[in-house]
Amino acid sequence: MATLAEQIEAMRALAENWDGYGAAAPQAHVLNLAREFVRLIEAVLHKRGAVADAVFVSPTRTGGVLVEWEDSETEHEVEIYPDQSFSFLHLNKTTGHTETRKLAAGAQAVVHPGLLQEIRELLAA
Amino acid sequence: MDEISDDEVLLRHIPSGSLWQAPGPRITSANFELRHHRNETGVSVTRLRITTPERLIELVGGSIENGSRVAAVRAADVRALGLKVVPIPLADDAGHGEIQSDSASLDDHACRKKLAKLFELLTFTSKSGGDERQ
After folding, report:
1. ipTM attached to this prediction
2. Quick check: B53 and B70 in contact, CB under 8 A?
3. Per the CB 3.0–4.6 Å rule, which of A19, A34, B33, B63 could disulfide with A23?
């Protein structure tokens, strides 16, 4: 099975309409950001002693990337949009309660891949 | 144009994702996102009563051999989320319809997550039918 980084790289080959319903091709800058974000999540899961192969990545219809993982209590989703904003969703598997929040993009990119890389290195230290 | 009854089954193509997903395609909230700048008004679906899963895959240019799948949901369950289900027949698909925002919004990540959880992948057991829920 391909690693998450390899799966994200494979998304660069997707063309417009990859889903048959007119989906946008994933954008390169979003894939770069997603790659760093996934590495960060893997580092966090590793630190917690959790299994990192339960992380899934998917292209979104708008040219972004969706990252999903879960732990014993919660399903997590983070969607990275083409404008580099993030949408977070946390679903409690017992109660069904869902929390969402969004980091909206301003004039500058909200999250730079370099920042995620730095956080990951701090976590791994 | 006849309305879509609550007990009707709606189909949606799930692209293979063979390059990035294993062991097979996942139904995610990302499958139900709208592209507003393309003036999309809803999520396309197909009525099982009118269009077969095989025909749907053909219509969207998918391939079962390459990992394309079809997911199914009951119209009543979609409506219970606060979404609309409306028929919008197309020239090449008389069974085409849309899931549209109503009291709930498809722009809401949580709504899309709930919608994704309602769909179930069909299992293609023979050349003639993808009529079994997985």
Report:
1. 0.84
2. yes
3. A19
Model pLDDT for residues A28-43, shown as the tens digit of each residue = 999 999 999 998 888 8
Question: What's the full length of chain B, in residues?
Answer: 134
B51-58 CB contacts, 8 Å cutoff, 24+ apart: B51/B11, B51/B93, B51/B94, B51/B95, B51/B96, B52/B129, B52/B130, B53/B11, B53/B122, B53/B124, B53/B129, B53/B130, B53/B131, B54/B124, B54/B127, B54/B128, B54/B130, B55/B93, B56/B11, B56/B13, B56/B93, B57/B13
Q: Which of A8, A19, A66 to mutate to test the interface with B (most CBs of B within 10 A)?
A: A19
> Which residue is associated with the tokens 């500058």?
A108
Find all residues with CB under 8 Å of A4, minimum gap 6, and list them.
A38, A42, A55, A57
CA distance linking residue A67 with residue A11, whole number of Å: 13
- pLDDT tens for B77-111 read 999 999 999 999 999 999 999 999 999 999 999 99
Q: What integer pLDDT is reported at residue B8 of this predicted model? A: 98
- Chain A: residue whose CA lies nearest to B62: A20
Separation CA B109–CA A91 (nearest Å): 11
Interface of B with A in 29-48 (CB under 8 A): 29-35, 38, 40, 44
φ/ψ region of A13 (left if φ > 0, alpha if ψ in -120 to 50, else beta) reads alpha
Inter-chain residue contact B30 with A61, CB threshold 8 Å = yes
* Helix (H/G/I), strand (E/B), else coil: B69: strand
